[in-house]
Amino acid sequence: MRIGVLYLVSGPSGSGKSTLCRRLAAEGEAEFSVSCTTRQPRQGESHGREYHFLDRETFSRRIEAGEYLEHAEVHGNHYGTLKSEVIGRLKSGVDVVMDIDVQGAAQVRASEDPLIRRALVDLFVMPPDEEELAARLKGRATDSEEVIALRLRNAIEEMAHWQEYQYRLVSATHEEDYTRFKALLLGERLRVTRTLVP
């Protein structure tokens, strides 16, 4: 028996990381860790599927109770991953994919939990250049010009952190990205350190 892989994935808005994570989960290769957020749902999003949508008071209460593996403020909203979304699955040998920002990733890397440290594999997904990133953000048609400008500024800052990760994926086509993304997980499953010692 093995412990699950904690596949931590970061990258700027528009990099394609969320699409990769969702597809991996949809194909049954890993279970998606649904984060909590205080931001409002976008059209088509529902509570418990894309995010657990919480008010600020509830989010803060859960911080005080020590329920988060990581949490951070991004784009003026709070985001966090509940320990309950991750720990039990890893112990059962289930791979968990997390789609989180660089602040949250740093907190997970700093975790002193031996299971987290042993299970963790982190990947940074980035677009080939800033022009492509800007085009992707505008192409969503879900945000105002002000929000797009903020996301672009934040994305450029986030991309400076790629060297903190074990792996980096420079985005090409959707299919090329997914093939490489899935291959990394499959390779990590073969590590001897994933085996549980009786």
From TrEMBL:
Pfam families: Guanylate_kin. It comes from the Bacteria. Its EC number is 2.7.4.8. It catalyses: GMP + ATP = GDP + ADP. PROSITE patterns: GUANYLATE_KINASE_1, GUANYLATE_KINASE_2. The keyword ATP-binding applies. The keyword Kinase applies. GO terms for molecular function: ATP binding; GMP kinase activity. Essential for recycling GMP and indirectly, cGMP. Belongs to the guanylate kinase family. This is Guanylate kinase. It comes from Haloferula luteola.
